[in-house]
Design brief:
Length: 497
Amino acid sequence: MSSLLPCTQPNNRTDNGVNGFIESLAELKKESGNQQYKLKQYRQALPLYTEAIELCPDIPAYYGNRSACYMMLNRYHDALEDARKSVQLDSAFVKGYIRILKCGIALGDVMTADQAVKHIKIMEPDNNATIKNELASLETLKKFEADALKAYNKQDFRTVVYCMDRCLSQAPNCCKYKTTKGECLAYLGRYEEAQELVNGILHIDKGNADAIYVRGMCMFYEDNIDSACQHFMQVLRLAPDHKKAMDLYKRAKLLKKKKDEGNDAFKNCRFQDALNLYTEALKVDPFNKKTNAKLYFNRATVYSKLNKLADAVSDCTSALKLDDNYLKALLRRAKCYMDLGEYEEAVKDYEKACKMDKNREHKRLLNDAKLALKKSKRKDYYKILGVERNATEDEIKKAYRKRALVHHPDRHANASDAEKKEQEKKFKELGEAYGILSDSKKKARYDSGQDLEDGFDGMPDFDPSQVFQTFFSGGGGHGGEYSFQGGAFPGFSFQFG
């Protein structure tokens, strides 16, 4: 801190007359400023140093004193300007170079700080004690700036944020470090933190192009593309060569164009065109998670229209990875799972949807999915008999008669043991199916997904031989004769026409 103390030695000029009076008055102003400075009344000291400079604008110490005062007020740009002026007036003014060093560190201007160190070492080669802390801070800045650059090039934004925090611990007033950190926070999706950081800069410097750019980034990545473009245009008015702003402005315009064209194609049922446009839009900016989540959802909707349900599921999953609270994507995926017959997955999605928004429609969809899952775990008796769900009683009877005769164990008496076992299984399943579907009450309960009796969900307790005998010997005789000799059901003889 001693190097920041204002100069107290009087001006050595001894001109008489008016000049001498002016110089004496300037010295008084400087001394009054020094008194206020020692009392830490920096705002009161500042105008006194300014008056001294106005009276004698060629005295290095006056600029040095005001530079120290600016530093205490965190006005480092002004402090650096005064320090530079002091060494221009006196190239051997060591305190001036020390203040340049301190300002360079505070502003994150490593090059300026390095140049100041060189001058100090030339003038005081054997005395680094006065700038020991500054030299340590400068080395810290160099190290973490280099580490941050490597990490940025690898898109390792978390490491950049860490490095910038280390730099800001040495240079808390550096806007460059703050905007770099804000940019990387935006890439990491931490938009509130990024905006809060750059808003602090803009409160002091409304024309800071980098801070405006970061705020535009946050808007772009929060799917507020129009406002983002306005910010990028403002940046380019302030800094026409701002490459990042120009690049992101172009990408924002292209992304909006592709998305709008895709929406228009979908509305006009040009589904393949919409698919292509959404795919192109997804390639524009991989960091724009919110917009890309919507694009994935839109493309999933197109896939579902084209009956490409697996692709639709994949895109909904991609949308949810980018935005895990995207309810529309969750419901779309659940519907696709239902259509694909993947009921367990559908139930999971509808349960999540109910947690997010427990309304009547979502409850209904969940119950439907649970019922479908329950049905799917039971045997499909319609499929076993080979009939449609709306089959008539007569169609069910005919289907059973045809298949029962094909799979009856006696017909396969000479088959291998494995084949016999398989045919017996199929014959038993046919008995189960007919036993349920030929009974109107059981059929109604089966169709509605209700349980009929113990064991219904697994293997109902049916005697397939009894079903077979009842069917062929009952009132539904068909004329003609069909007989099995020996085997599982010896002695049966039936007439068929």
